[in-house]
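Section 3.1: Structural characterization of target chains.
Under the original work plan, the team committed to producing a structural model for every single-chain target entering the pipeline before any wet-lab resources were allocated. The record below documents one such target. The sequence was received from the expression subgroup and is listed exactly as submitted; it comprises 246 residues.
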Amino acid sequence: MARIDYDERAAAAFEAARQLPSDGLAQWRDAIARYLAPQPGMRVLDVGAGTGMWATALAGWFGITVVAIEPAAAMRARATCPAVIGGDARALPLGAATADGAWLSTVIHHVPDLAAAARELARVLRPGAPVLIRSAFAGRCQHIGLTRFWPETVAVLDTYPSAADVCAAFGAAGFGYLALEPVSQVTASSLATVAASLRRAAHTPLTLISDDAYQAGLARLRAAATETGPVTDVLDLLVFRNATTQ
């Protein structure tokens, strides 16, 4: 499923370097609430849940049941949420029309068959349920901090599915388009924190550039680490609603 192999080394790097500060996610919380409209008793899928950061956040923010689904055993072993089920976006281990929404965070570029994943989500979601996709989409990566220090990552990010690609796949599966909006987050308290916690294996774009390019960017990051203030990134939220009838 993944562009990189989430083995034990990559999972450890992800756990160490990809946890976002909870107090920097207010805009994500608000955006998710607008489209998910959380209610008591809702059952929401976190597809490609990784180590469970978002599953934990969604359950804590909204008091809902979150079913975390992750294909990599090494990531599941490090999960912080109560339970993570093994599964793939193309073959979800749930019955038809059993979920009230789905969340996919920085996972869509790992899915080799978007059309199959969209059809599978249409199967497991109830009619009217939303799909919320947090991602860097091709051509819309200018406000992602990695690109400042590693400009070579722009070429990698531009190989990711575009928003139009994802809209086409989900539209063909019976989803209606709702929104595409940029959402800001505080990724770290400072560049010094980023430099101290950085793990190359935790970031797909960094694993796909040359060693020389990586080292040059690391030197630029360390040189800039004296800058003060929080580090802010912007990713997109793409939202669909399941228009199929079961």
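The chain is about 35% helix and 20% strand.
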